[in-house]
């Protein structure tokens, strides 16, 4: 078997086309939508995303600023900036990049993002609403995984879904989105015993770990649908997923990296800004 590639570029282009129209209408009506990305890390994957998001925003007609507070920023520095942006009437969307400076948890500072401007769903209030099935803005990556599965008509109702990774940005919110779609959800993490035994039960397996090629064929049930969220920089300047390409010989469908979840994430984040 060789897995069907579940590419995200076409879906992303369709979403961006809609966003471009909406942003154009707002611009014509007086002011273009404005996104501010706050970053406090020198993580490479994060820096790449910031540049790529800023460039994608420009192309769809969203004004975008980057507030780089540097990897030494304190919780106080970050909350002060998030609070100021939340109060600024010229700003529609505020996004805080992860990872944060060592020792700082997202939930410690993301409460300072006004839920009305919380375009990556990071505020504990936004996450709480997601957990009770009344989402405001869902984290773009988690939403992108479900959008991609919908795009390829993967049936989630009653399916056994296993998510590897429990971050507040991907794994946890995704577990809630999948539950809302009536999947039976298991979440794995670094303390999970016998990871392969758990992941092998999945009809739909999602890897959001940040470890190059952690998921090998022995982790995957024959015919499973596999979604690779990982975007790990390689020494040669490329990008590798969390899923070993050899999984394509076992899975029925697999998202590519690059060109899978990533482009959809960016498009949905921009959609949240115009919304
Ligand atoms: N394509 C896209 O749109 C996006 C891609 N990403 C990428 O996805 C990846 C994950 O991102 P993010 O969630 O922010 O990462 P985090 O580092 O915040 O979380 C990683 C999770 O993986 C778990 N984990 C680590 N090692 C193992 C292991 N050996 N076995 C099982 N679980 C493990 C951790 O467990 P524990 O909690 O126990 O530490 C943690 O829950 C990264 O590569 C990131 O760049 C992220 C966002 C968007
Ligand atoms: N609060 C927060 N939310 C995030 O969503 C978030 C974050 N912090 N921190 C950093 C990670 C990383 N991330 C990526 C998103 C898209 C691509 C993407 O579009 N990648 C292209 C790669 C293109 C290439 O380099 O060749 C692709 O997959 O096709 C990559 C990485 C979001 N993140």
Any key phrases for this structure?
about 280 residues, alpha/beta, Rossmann fold, 2 domains, 6-stranded parallel β-sheet, 3-stranded parallel β-sheet, globular, binds NADPH dihydro-nicotinamide-adenine-dinucleotide phosphate, binds 5,10-Methenyltetrahydrofolate
Would you kindly provide a written description of the structure presented here, covering whatever features stand out?
By secondary structure, the protein is of the alpha/beta class. The chain folds into two domains: 84 residues, Leucine Dehydrogenase, chain A, domain 1 (Rossmann fold, 3-Layer(aba) Sandwich), CATH 3.40.50; 123 residues, NAD(P)-binding Rossmann-like Domain (Rossmann fold, 3-Layer(aba) Sandwich), CATH 3.40.50.720. The strands form three sheets. The chain has a six-stranded parallel sheet with strand order 1-11-8-7-5-6. Helix 1 packs parallel to helix 9, helix 6 crosses helix 7 and helix 6 crosses helix 9. The longest helix has 20 residues. The relative contact order is 0.17. The model has no long low-confidence stretch (mean pLDDT 97). The site of 5,10-Methenyltetrahydrofolate has 20 residues, from helix 2, helix 6 and helix 9.
What characterizes the major β-sheet? 6 strands, parallel
Strand content: 15-25%
Termini separation comes to 41 Å
Oligomer: single chain
The gross shape turns out to be globular
Helix content, binned percent? 25-40%
Any guess at the CATH architecture of the largest domain?
Answer: 3-Layer(aba) Sandwich
Q: List the bound ligands.
A: NADPH dihydro-nicotinamide-adenine-dinucleotide phosphate, 5,10-Methenyltetrahydrofolate
The count of strands amounts to: 11
> How large is the radius of gyration?
18 Å
User: How many separate domains make up the residues?
Assistant: 2
Residue ranges: pLDDT <50 for 5 or more in a row? none
Q: Record the strand order, biggest sheet.
A: 1-11-8-7-5-6
Strand pairing plus helix content: what structural class?
Answer: alpha/beta
Overall mean pLDDT: 97
| Name given to the CATH homologous superfamily of the largest domain | NAD(P)-binding Rossmann-like Domain
- Number of helix segments? 9
CATH third-tier fold name of the largest domain: Rossmann fold
């Amino acid at each position: 078997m060789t897995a069907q590639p579940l590419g995200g570029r076409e879906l992303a282009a369709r979403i961006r086309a809609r966003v471009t129209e909406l942003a154009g209408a707002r611009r014509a009506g007086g002011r273009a939508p404005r996104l501010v990305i706050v970053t406090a890390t020198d993580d490479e994957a994060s820096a790449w995303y910031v540049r790529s998001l800023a460039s994608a925003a420009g192309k769809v007609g969203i004004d975008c600023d980057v507030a780089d507070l540097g990897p030494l920023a304190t919780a106080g520095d970050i909350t002060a900036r998030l609070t100021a942006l939340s109060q600024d009437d010229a700003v529609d969307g505020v996004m805080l990049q992860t990872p944060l400076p060592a020792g700082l948890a997202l939930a410690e500072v993301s409460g300072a993002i006004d839920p009305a401007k919380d375009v990556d769903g990071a505020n504990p209030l936004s996450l709480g609403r997601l957990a009770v099935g009344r989402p405001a803005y869902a984290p773009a990556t988690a939403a992108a995984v479900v959008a991609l599965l919908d795009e390829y008509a993967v049936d989630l109702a009653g399916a056994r879904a296993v998510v590897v990774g429990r971050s507040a940005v991907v794994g946890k919110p995704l577990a809630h989105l999948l539950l809302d779609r009536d999947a039976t959800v298991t979440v794995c993490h670094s303390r999970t015993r016998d990871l392969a035994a758990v992941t092998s039960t999945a009809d739909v397996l999602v890897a959001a770990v940040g470890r190059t090629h952690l998921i090998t064929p022995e982790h995957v049930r024959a015919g499973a649908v596999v979604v690779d969220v990982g975007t790990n920089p390689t020494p040669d300047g490329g990008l590798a997923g969390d899923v070993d390409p050899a999984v394509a010989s076992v899975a029925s469908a697999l998202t590519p990296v690059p060109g899978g979840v990533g482009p959809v994430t960016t498009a949905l984040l921009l959609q949240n800004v115009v919304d």
